[in-house]
Amino acid sequence: MYAKVVDDQLEAFPYTDKMLRLDNPTTSFPVVLTDEIRAAFNMLPVAQGTMPAGKNYVSSSCDKVAGVWTEIIAWVDPIPPSVVELKEYLAELRWEAETGGIMASGMSIDTSRESQAMLTSAYLLMQRDPERVIRWKTRTGTVNLNAEAITSIADIVANHVQDCFDLEANTVALIDNHTITTFDEIDNLIWPS
């Protein structure tokens, strides 16, 4: 990063090699410029400025600090998310947790909405025909399940889904009363899995 400085006065920042070439159209510059060549045309290096973590960049300028041309960064505190934004973000995370799958009875079970509907259908079928054995595809392969196994898995999945919605509802209350005000706080929630 460079600035154009004439007689110790800042004329342009940032100042690029392209700008230097445009300002000096009759000069034949080498393809790769060195700092020595740049300095001969009042183009000086600028120390990179720093910005506090968690702040939003606004703009930068340049000034001499302790004898060194330094980038001065203007920043602002981030605008806190609105209650609506927090709730929308929370709903996305709940959906990911709800539909992200779980381990049930030693099997990896898909908990997508489609899989939940299929499990409900299998559960209802087993209620009418408890002696039936059905083939069920898990993430790790196909297994045979009887009524007891289907009922157990259906209960585990239903409880998982309900736990996800319960956590979301409890968190919405904390958002509404401004106990939770940031996305980071929502990210720190521990979702059922």
Structure explained in plain terms:
This protein has six helices and nine strands. By secondary structure, the protein is an alpha+beta fold. It has two domains: 2-76, no CATH class; 83-187, no CATH class. The strands form four sheets. A three-stranded antiparallel sheet has the order 2-1-3. Strand 1 (2-6) and strand 2 (9-12) form a beta hairpin. The protein is elongated. The model has no long low-confidence stretch (mean pLDDT 94).
Please give the oligomerization state of what you see: single chain
- Portion of residues in helices? 40-55%
The count of DSSP E runs of length 2 or more, i.e. the number of strands, is 9
The structural class is alpha+beta
The overall number of domains is: 2
Report the major sheet. Answer: 3 strands, antiparallel
| SSE pattern | EEHHEEEHEEHEEHH
Rg, Cα atoms, Å? 31 Å
> How confident is the prediction overall: mean pLDDT?
94
DSSP helical segment count: 6
Strand order of the largest sheet: 2-1-3
Overall geometric form:
elongated
Distance between the termini: 48 Å
Question: Segments where pLDDT lies below 50 for 5+ residues?
Answer: none
Strand content: 15-25%
